[in-house]
Design a protein that fits this description.
The chain is mainly α and about 150 residues long. It is built from seven helices and no strands. It has helices at about 5-15, 20-40, 45-70, 75-90, 95-110, 120-130, 135-149. The model has no long low-confidence stretch (mean pLDDT about 90). It holds the Pfam family YqeY.
Length: about 150
């Protein structure tokens, strides 16, 4: 079942169950996917493109959550936290820190990176492998850590 079909089914269930917040979040994701398809001039997106849109939506919400929490807006922070929970259901399973570290170490060996100045080379190899499966901030931190050791 494609992501669009899954979103449509979940949207119908949310309507029946009168889950307004969940329904709103699903509609926003569907709209983002449709906008991306229009922008690319195609009817359907590839799985990778769908994942890119989901990652973008998730990042926006995480950034908003941090901003709302730092501003003391607990009402808005809780709403965004609920949206994040809904979005996580559509994301692929996340890699553990150990799995990301193993991928980073392999990339360092592959690129012969030895110093923090080689970070761009390593990130270029790692990010396509972990796309959607690991947070970019986590990957960045692990690469820095591995290159400074």
């Amino acid at each position: 079942m494609s992501l669009q079909e899954r979103l449509t089914d979940d949207m119908k269930q949310a309507m029946r169950a009168k889950q307004k917040d969940r329904l709103t979040t699903i509609r926003m994701v569907k709209a983002s996917l449709q906008n991306e398809a229009i922008k690319l001039g195609r009817q359907d997106l590839t799985e990778e493109e769908e994942l890119t849109v989901l990652n973008r939506e998730m990042k926006q919400r995480r950034d908003s959550l941090r901003e709302f929490e730092s501003a003391g807006r607990d009402d808005l922070a809780s709403k965004v936290a609920e949206e994040i929970v809904v979005l996580e259901a559509y994301m692929p399973e996340q890699l553990s820190e150990d799995e990301v570290t193993a991928i980073v170490q392999a990339a360092i060996a592959q690129t012969n990176a030895a110093a923090p100045s080689d970070m761009g080379k390593v990130m270029g190899v790692v990010m396509p492998q972990v796309k959607g499966k690991a947070d970019g901030g986590l990957v960045n931190r692990i690469v820095k850590q591995q290159l400074t050791n």
